[in-house]
Amino acid sequence: MTTLHLDAEALYADLLARVRPLVRHDDSAASALVGIWSGGAWLAERLQHDLGLAGAHGVISSTLHRDDFGSRGLAATTDATALPFEIDGRHILLIDDVLYTGRTTRAVINELFDFGRPASVTLAVLVDRGGRELPIEPAVSAARVVLPATQRLALTRDGSGRFDFEIENL
Asked: Residue of 6, 28, 65, 113 with fewest CB within 10 Å of its CB?
């Protein structure tokens, strides 16, 4: 049996370096960071600060556009979408912690377009674990790993904001 050891902080540093050149600073079409609830939102918050970007990052939820909404229903959580900037004409850097099937990404892109028409959407993820069921690929990923479908990779954050990973058996 193989044990997977991922250094989330080292991967974050790599993600920061890879995202930096993607950020557009021109006022007419500036970039905006939007993190997918919840791990992606944590990453977007920290990236916003570490990149020195003015304003607030956005947070987006997949809840209302999931293709399994009928079986999952509406969860009683605080994962509401909050986009504190105009979407129309913006270059959106969509940030997520772990990309797997692509279904969450598809759902949040649908949610994003409910708020306007961005100039572009670029996906950056901390970890790409393969297993895609939809034709969605990140422009940037800090790592690519393979896990059995019976396991879930989850980003965690401690009280000081440091990242780590947990592997959960389903």
From this structure: 28
Non-local (6+) Cβ contacts of 111 within 8 A are 60, 61, 62, 64, 65, 81
Angle at 66 between CA 142 and CA 128, to 5 degrees: 15
HSE-CB for 58 with a 13 A CA cutoff = 23
The answer to whether 61 touches 111, Cβ cutoff 8 Å, is: yes
According to DSSP, residue 29 is labeled G
116 phi and psi angles, rounded to 5 deg = 150, -175
What pTM, to 2 d.p., does this model score?
0.92
Instruction: Kindly give the confidence (pLDDT) of every residue in the chain, 170 residues in length, as a single tens digit, with 9 standing for 90 and above.
Output: 456 789 999 999 999 999 999 999 877 678 999 999 989 999 999 999 999 999 999 999 988 886 665 555 555 555 689 999 999 999 999 999 999 999 999 999 999 999 999 999 999 999 999 999 999 999 999 999 999 999 999 999 999 999 999 999 98
State the Cα–Cα distance between residues 31 and 22, nearest whole angstrom.
8
Helix 39-50 with 8-19: angle, nearest 10 deg: 60
3-state SS assignment for residue 130: coil
CA–CA distance, 130 with 107 (Å, rounded to integer): 18
Beta partners for residue 157, in sequence order:
163
